[in-house]
Amino acid sequence: MSNREDRGGGWKGFTGVRKKSGKKGRGCKSCDFVDYKDVPTLKRFLNAHGKLFSRKRSRTCPKCQRLIKQAVKRARFMGILSYTN
Description:
Elements: H1 3-6, H2 39-43, H3 55-58, H4 62-78
């Protein structure tokens, strides 16, 4: 008898492999290298007023959101990206 059967009940087709929690297909869109000179990529994370989208809306992990924030700030300071669109 396996451990699963000893505990009684449970799903009979259980294989021991579980999927990650959360919705299917969700994941960080920008786990690649984030560069302040890549303006088209940075503009994907800004709304029409020039504000950054939230993590929930842009679907990025916390680390990538911080990298994007820093890249946008650098691009704005250098004059590559405008403060308002």
